[in-house]
């Protein structure tokens, strides 16, 4: 018997994933800010980390971790606080970056591992994963694992170009405004956007 996902829910899944990936959130703001502060190429590890990190989260939620998350009330609030503090630290880092050509120890963009781990304290990532898995899997179906893997694959395929678009926007803006003073302004604006994503976590 075909699963719900494979028998007509694939397009809605893609549209849901696109909406979640493109709308402003911590990952997108970090990509744009990193693109402006460090350049597109140096932001690629962050993009890859989010892509694989979120896909892995979807699989983990689908295999039961989501139940733990929803059953412990204080866990969600704790993640918001930790995620907020991390975002504020990243905002400070971007604000003090030296531009796409910078390369001091304090100006390194997020690594793939850091970006992947950040998904676990990113409430938007949790919200998307906890929404997608029950919405696009068959209750009591015998193809649950297959459906979860499809959801994770679609999430990854959508997340990668979405973050690349945000990072490209940030990098392009930094190139267009290339004087040191203009670059500082771009960094401050992007840092403010990253910091403002903290507000989104509590809406």
Characterise this structure.
α1 runs parallel beside α7, α2 (26-38) packs antiparallel against α8 and α4 runs antiparallel to α8 (180-201). The N and C termini lie far apart (41 Å). This protein is an all-alpha fold. The chain is globular and about 60 Å long. The protein is built from 8 helices and no strands.
For this entry, give a set of tags.
203 residues; mainly alpha; 8 helices; 79% helix; 0% strand; globular
How are the elements arranged and paired?
Layout: H1 5-22, H2 26-38, H3 40-71, H4 73-95, H5 112-118, H6 123-135, H7 144-176, H8 180-201
Helix pairs in contact: 1-7, 2-3, 2-4, 2-7, 2-8, 3-5, 3-6, 3-7, 4-8, 7-8
SS class: mainly alpha
Number of strands: 0
Q: What fraction strand?
A: under 5%
* N→C terminal distance: 41 Å
Residue ranges: pLDDT <50 for 5 or more in a row?
A: 102-106
What's the shape?
globular
What is the radius of gyration?
Answer: 18 Å
Percent in helix: over 70%
Q: Please give the count of helices.
A: 8
Chain-averaged pLDDT = 82
Report the sheet with the most strands, covering strand number, pairing sense and barrel closure.
none
**Order of helix and strand elements from N to C terminus:** HHHHHHHH
